[in-house]
Design goal:
Number of strands: 5
Radius of gyration: 14 Å
Structural class: alpha/beta
Shape: globular
CATH class: Alpha Beta
CATH architecture: 3-Layer(aba) Sandwich
Oligomer: single chain
Number of domains: 1
Number of helices: 5
CATH topology: Rossmann fold
Largest sheet: 5 strands, parallel
CATH superfamily: Response regulator
Strand order of the largest sheet: 2-1-3-4-5
Strand content: 15-25%
Length: 136
């Protein structure tokens, strides 16, 4: 499995990397602009991401804008909705407006409010069908 972690905060990026590395190859991006470029390059190299953990509040291009660009690019290259990359929005913003904007308007697969707990994240990835067993 291949995962892109998009997080401007070093500590949050490192936490997600530590949780997810036993399950996948993890790449990092520090803002939405880098995330979109990494996503696009992965498709061009024919090794797309299976999962993107995408923070909302970031400099340059925020997570919601990156989400929109990713979904638009998938449509451009003819990806079926069922084959879209799974995107978990990770944020401190738990208010209904941001949840609705990410999930229903933006096309995110899931939404998690920080602080991210290992068991909760792994359970969410299991629900998405990307992992079967927990690695200790």
């Amino acid at each position: 499995m291949k995962i892109l972690i998009v997080e401007d905060d070093f500590g949050s990026r490192k936490l997600l990397q530590n949780i997810l590395t036993p399950y996948a190859d993890c790449d990092m991006a520090v803002n939405g602009e880098e995330a979109f470029e990494a996503f696009k390059l992965a498709w061009e190299d024919n090794v797309p991401y299976d999962l993107i953990c995408l923070d909302i509040m970031m400099p340059k291009v925020d997570g919601l804008e990156a989400l929109k660009k990713i979904r638009e690019y998938e449509k451009e290259i003819g990806i079926n909705i069922s084959a879209e990359v799974k995107i978990i929005m990770t944020t401190v913003l738990g208010d209904p407006k941001n949840v609705i904007q990410a999930l229903y308007k933006g096309g995110a697969t899931s939404y998690m409010v920080k602080p991210i707990k290992k068991n909760k994240l792994i359970d969410e990835i299991k629900k998405l069908g990307l992992i079967m067993e927990v690695v200790d």
